[in-house]
Design a protein that fits this description.
Layout: H1 3-18, H2 25-34, H3 41-51, E1 68-72, E2 75-78
Antiparallel strand pairs: 1-2
Helix pairs in contact: 1-2, 2-3
Length: about 80
């Protein structure tokens, strides 16, 4: 499973728990660590804030996704919720 796959898998629980459909990078890191993710904190943070975020500015990665949108300082929401 890729880091992106793992992140997308924990988002429904985080969105529900937070009540407003948003989550922080710390929420994602904590959820993945509790699940025993093979990915380190830096990789997870990079995915949420850059590789998976439409607000990333100029992409610095060969592969990027438009999965998340920054809605406030440190708060994110999925672009297309299932």
């Amino acid at each position: 499973m890729t880091a992106r796959d793992e992140i997308l898998a924990v988002l429904p629980d985080l969105e529900f728990r937070n009540g407003d459909g948003t989550f922080s990078v710390d929420d994602v890191v904590g959820a993945l660590q509790r699940r025993g993710s093979q990915y380190n904190e830096r990789t997870i943070r990079t995915h949420v804030t850059s590789r998976m975020c439409v607000d990333r500015g100029q992409p610095h990665h060969a592969v990027v996704y438009d999965d998340l949108k920054r809605v406030d300082r440190g708060r994110y929401r999925r672009v297309n919720r299932d």
